[in-house]
Amino acid sequence: MRPAALDLFQILPLMALALPFLGAAIVSALPGMRTVWAVAIAFALATLALALVVALPALGGAPVLVQSPTAGGVPWLRLDTYGALGLIVAAALGLIACTAGLGVSVGPDRIQVSPFVAALLLVLSGALAGLVVIEGAAALLGFGAMATLAVAGLVVADANARRPALPAAFEVIVWGGTLTLLAGLGLVLALALTSSVDLGGVVAAATRAPPDPSLLGALALVVVGALALSGTPPGHSWAVNAATLGAPAGAVLVGPGLQLAGLFILAKLVGTLGTVGGAVLAGWMGLVLGSVIAVAVVLVAIQAAMDEDVRRMLGLLAAAQGGLAALLIVSGTDAGLRAGLFQALAVCLVAATAALATASLAARGHVRTLDDLDGMGAEAPISTLALLLAGLAVIGMPLTVGFVAKWRLIEAALISGWWWAAAVVVVVALAGIIAVGRMVDRLLLRPLPAARSAAAPEDAAASTALPMLALAGLSVLLGIDATGLWDLVVAASASLTEGTEGLSAPASIPVPAPALAETPPTMVPADPAASGAEPGQ
Amino acid sequence: MPNLLQLASAGMVALVFAGLALALSRLHPLKRLAGIVLGHLGLVLLLAVRMGGTGADGGGTHPMLAPALVLVASMFAFAVAGIAVLMRTQEAYGSLDAYAIAHADSPQAFQPSGPRAARSDRP
After folding, report:
1. With a CB-CB cutoff of 8 Å, which residues 50-89 of chain B face chain A?
2. CA A526, CA B20: separation in Å to the nearest integer?
């Protein structure tokens, strides 16, 4: 860790965190949507550049801890591999939302959106980054509230066009308030019990043996808050409605972004709780949480396969996939944590592609139900290609990132002794095949209805098509070789469990053959003792 | 025997859960919004009770002060955002009562598909 005084390495991360908010303030005062769009992209680009500058050294194994320069040094934010990964992904999502998401709505013959949408996108990307890297408990609550309020704003942004967006926005506000209350109550109780101001102090107290039951109960409230923030089934309804009914411009951040932030916080809690948390989660608490999530995930996946509304179907599929990540994370094992983090990133990538594709299809005309997709394959080939690649990744087709993620999930489930979780992964993939199959049928095999063939505007504009195809291409590239991302995830989970003895495998379950627990070499020159050895190795 | 501080803390925790129950109910939207404010108030009061119980730390700033301020800010933000959305809802539905009736007692109330959503999707 670097020294306590605020040097350049400490100011830059704070700037990377503050820049989107500065941009939001500026764009909300600018006239003209074109200007707003350009300035929003400039700020999102600058944020990503700054995030890369400060996060790349951390990814390379040199963590930065930014703390107050006063005596005592209250930690503000931590950029280890986990934090760096989260910061980069949040900034990248912000840039994609500002270019491609706004690009869907800004154009001569497209739906005009309020300039505040750009500001809200920047606020949301900043809040998501803050949620991942921040250390102070109060700031965590603040960023959580900010994120949910920005989501509510994005949902309601074009409520003139869609009246059901109003109840959806109200649900987001209610759920956002509920999450702040649940997580706040947990944090306040934990802080009061440990007399600390940051998560580190709470975790240090929680991992001290013997564990304090009331402290673990308080932390359980925070875990439930993180689960609900990620839209993990059964608490998925508000998040799916927000992603389904909100302004298309915000679809990249509202659905996939919020889900990723929630899963990352969940992983941080489970990871940093280390040995004690792992033991508790591997015991009854993990089993209760896991079985509730598993049942809900299966039901949501079946619901997705039956749904007629395109965006809702994709939203439910993403919720089920995110639920799989949460399921493995709460298994409380190292393998589960890694597989869960990898799945969280994979789902985010795939769901962002699908969100952009459906938004660009919807911008061309009325696309709500599966019927509206008839013949779109020939009419809008670029959006269709992206949507199909995302769909194939959702069902875990080989040569897509979805396949690697599902492989890792099943492997981790078996290592953790949760064979039934592996069965859940398979069931969700099967339900996905039905949903995606219905979509493929509509897109490629049905003729274009005569009523629609007269009006045939262009396919996605370049500002949307390029990021969309880049995301879809990345999903295929990672399907061919995911070693780099997997190494990052391994290093990130190691940085979470650093300082603890790593998560434990359930004692009563025999550890499977080492072949299953194969760990690729880490590219970060981390301390091997701290990198959380795989159970059974 | 529990002392006054513990009793007060338990009362505040109960207030938070009452607020949560109200927020997640299917009652009139204003009551649900009031639930969030109530829960936040309970949490801030809980912090105040704990602050009174533990005293200030060596640095001069109480560790609970920052969370308390964030919670107060968050309470106002949720209330203002909620009222803004409800005002738009009132415009769209004619009255909040009409909205509450349209969305009461149905877990499917917020689904875009189905006859109810089709009806409410009308411009």
Report:
1. 50, 54, 57-59, 63-64, 66-67, 69-71, 73-74, 77-78, 81-82, 85-86, 88-89
2. 44
Q: What percent of chain A has pLDDT over 70?
A: 82
User: Would you say A407 and A415 are in contact if contact means Cβ atoms under 8 Å apart?
Assistant: no
**Phi then psi dihedrals of residue A67, to 5 deg:** -135, 160
Mean pLDDT computed over B112-118: 42
Q: What is the dihedral of CA A317, A321, A323, A329, to 10 degrees?
A: -170
CA–CA separation, A335 vs A533, rounded Å?
10
**A47 close to A95: Cβ distance less than 8 angstroms:** yes
Which of B19, B57, B86 comes nearest A170 by C-beta?
A: B86
In this prediction, residue A522 has a pLDDT band, given cuts at 50, 70 and 90, of very low
Task: Sort out which chain A residues have CB atoms less than 8 A from B94's CB and list them.
Answer: none
Residues 6+ apart with CB under 8 A from A138: A197, B66, B67, B69, B70
Cα–Cα distance for residue pair A418/A414, rounded to 1 Å: 6
Rounded-to-5 percentages of helix, strand, coil across chain A: 70, 5, 25
Structure tokens at B100: 């509450």
Tokens at residue A439, please?
Answer: 């979509």
Q: What is the pLDDT of residues A180-189, one digit of tens each?
A: 899 889 888 8
The rounded distance, in Å, linking the Cα atoms of B90 and B34 is 17
CA-to-CA dists, residue A69 to A5, A236, B59, angstroms: 5, 41, 13
A321 and A427 Cβ atoms separated by less than 8 Å: no
Q: How many other C-beta atoms lie within 10 A of the C-beta of residue A274?
A: 23
Q: Cα–chain-centroid distance for residue A313?
A: 18
Q: Which two tokens stand for residue A148?
A: 């949910």
With beta carbons less than 8 A apart as the criterion, state whether A395 and A427 touch: no
Provide long-range contacts, Cβ within 8 A and 24+ apart, for A222-225.
A222/A182, A222/A183, A222/A186, A222/A187, A222/A190, A222/A269, A223/A186, A223/A266, A223/A269, A223/A270, A223/A289, A223/A330, A224/A182, A224/A186, A225/A144, A225/A179, A225/A180, A225/A182, A225/A183, A225/A186
Task: Look at residues A142, A143, A148 and name the one whose alpha carbon lies nearest to residue A173.
Answer: A148
What is the SS3 assignment for A140? Answer: helix
Cα atoms found within 13 Å of the Cα of residue A535, Cβ hemisphere only: 26
Angle between helices A165-194 and B4-23 (to 10 degrees): 160
Which residues in chain B have their CB less than 8 angstroms from residue A312's CB?
111-113
The three-class DSSP label of residue A67 is: strand
Chain B residue numbers touching A71 (CB-CB < 8 A): 59
Task: Give this complex's ipTM.
Answer: 0.81
pTM of the model: 0.86
